Amino acid sequence: MKLHTDLSKHAHAIFSQSTWVPSPIKEVSRKMLERDGGEIATATTLVHYEPNSYFSSHIHTGGEEFFVLDGTFADEHGDYPIGTYMRNPIGSSHAPVVEAGCMILVKLGQYQEGDTTPVHIDTHAQDFLPDPSRHHVQYQALHSFKHESVRLEKWQANQTIELENQGGIELLVIEGKFTHDNTEYQKFDWLRLPIGHSLRASIEKDTCKVWIKTGHHLHQIKDK
């Protein structure tokens, strides 16, 4: 399967306009955002676990990165409530068992060589800090390696937030909404901008919170 594999092109997915696709596990369904491959793939996906669902034990041959959007994700290593950010390096493994149900954003097979540090962050236990280089932006740093940076950002209401794009921009709306290039993005909508296409997000009356990754297209293009 190939979906949004050309990183030189703009891509987006509107949550309310997409459908859940069954996975090989009955209680687990997915909304594909970008994908190159079959069940073992380089992929970015929204994954929904019904209550009392599970996923068989598997090894992360290309690494796994995820953010819990709703409910509580769990495996044999622990419970991960909404707002948890995780990175499971290449070669790690687990067997998810989700009693309460949850939804996660998950990225597979997109680790850089040498990025071997596990990450486990409860973002609800951290404060947002003002970004000294961008007005009206607060952030939580989640991960960085070489050019790649992952953050949560809060954008203040009634502002236009700009971000230059030298290595790719990808984001998912966590709360609120914004408009970019005459398209409105709301909760759980996904946007990917190719290198050179800067972000210009207009926020109206409510604060907008996004999960955002930048710089990662540099190594992805190199690896193709």
Report on the architecture of this protein.
3% of the residues lie in helices and 53% in strands. It is mainly beta and 224 residues long. The strands form six sheets. Strands 1, 3, 4, 5, 8, 9, 10, 13 and 14 form a nine-stranded antiparallel beta sheet that branches. Strands 2-22-19-24-17-16-15 form a seven-stranded antiparallel beta sheet, with no helix packed on it.
Mean pLDDT: 94
* SS elements, strand count: 24
Structural class, judged by helices and strands?
mainly beta
How large is the radius of gyration? 17 Å
Topology record:
Elements: E1 2-3, E2 11-13, E3 21-22, E4 28-37, E5 41-49, E6 53-54, E7 58-59, E8 64-75, E9 78-81, E10 84-88, E11 93-94, E12 97-98, E13 102-108, E14 119-122, E15 129-130, E16 137-145, E17 148-155, E18 159-163, E19 169-175, E20 178-180, E21 183-185, E22 190-193, E23 199-203, E24 208-214, H1 217-223
Antiparallel strand pairs: 1-4, 2-22, 3-4, 4-5, 5-13, 6-12, 7-11, 8-9, 8-10, 8-13, 10-14, 15-16, 16-17, 17-24, 18-23, 19-22, 19-24, 20-21
